[in-house]
Amino acid sequence: MSKELNLNSPQQIADFLYNHLKLNPIKETQGGKSSTDVSVITHYAEKEEIEFCKYLLGHRKLVKAQGTYLEELQRWMQEGIRNNTNCTLLHPDMWLNTTETFRSSASSPAFQTIPHHGDIIPDIPWNIIRKIIVTLNKKDWWLMEVDYEGAEVKTAANLSEDKQLVKDLNDDMDMHSHWTNVIFGWNKDFKEIKKDFSEERHIVKNNWTFANMFGAGPASMAREFRKFDVYRNFVQNKWEQSGQEEPFFDFFALYSERHLRECQEVFFNRYKGLKEWQDGIVNLYYQNGYIETPLGFRRNYPLTRNEIINFPIQSVSFHILLDSIIRINKNLLTNKFKSVMIAQIHDSIMFLVYKPEVLDLIELVDEIMINHRLPIPKKAKLGTEWSLGVNWKDMVSLPNK
Hints:
The chain is about 50% helix and about 10% strand. It is of the alpha+beta class. The chain has a domain at about 165-270. A 5-stranded antiparallel beta sheet has the order 8-9-5-10-11, with helices on one face. It has a two-stranded antiparallel sheet with strand order 1-2. Helix 6 (about 175-185) packs across helix 8 (about 200-215), helix 7 (about 190-195) crosses helix 8 (about 200-215) and helix 9 (about 220-225) packs across helix 11. The longest helix has about 35 residues, at about 50-85. The relative contact order is 0.12.
């Protein structure tokens, strides 16, 4: 007798996996039941080639794409139509008071949460959702985005005045590709990593380079790395080569933390000044009960070590961008540009650009963003990265000057 299976029911999924397919449970919930979390389903899909689990992973990602992003964007476009006759423009709200690090955020919709990397299902990338965000018309207008090149890393370098870190940045060393080589035991050309191993580089960028800048420990970084298939596959190969009899998931947890601890020692052996600065501001926090940026913004007790170190870097980095946004907007109005700023996402600014103004806009914005006015050391030089296109997905990077 056929029976309908609710793919959103953990109990029904568990019954199907363990009673119908007769799979061997590899993990338990806190209540002692056989788990069906993403790591378990991923194991069955990738390591045991269970077709149902492959489809289940894809189903879960598609549900998230539809509910979290597509329906949300549709809702706000319909809101725009109701408030502005026949208008399908998005009008995100920008906030300066919703994060404790004094960074900005957007809502209605939340632009900063729309994914840029990885696949929903094979051959359908997450960033296809960005194709919804389009220019007014292809004939006269571009979407353009300018991003500070390594904004938070350079802020950390300037606040810590770490000589090696400053040198690496001013020499245009691709730190994320460098540390991707270290983490995965490679010796690949940086251009090859950016082109063919962008997922690994993205993982290292957000969960290693930035994590170390913000004072994360190997245990917390290992927890994040274990979420990614490419790192799981890397450790799987180590486990198979080791010939150990312990279950893979036990090996995975122990190896990942030991591996990242060893890599972190390499990191701080290179950047000793950064480590001294981190320890110094942590000591100041415990002496004073708060941490304060050079601009006078303050966070009070209680804070974790990560929050103590994160705060001055993220706060100062954003305020450099905010200063640029204010000055750019004034200049666009004063010089009567048709082009306008339409959004700010993380460390970047997005513009709707009138095509005849492209070169003038780049010159104006670069001059302002690279030469900020804030009272912090400027040993690590700021730079910008530009891209343009007719939609937010198919943006083409522009060559640096």
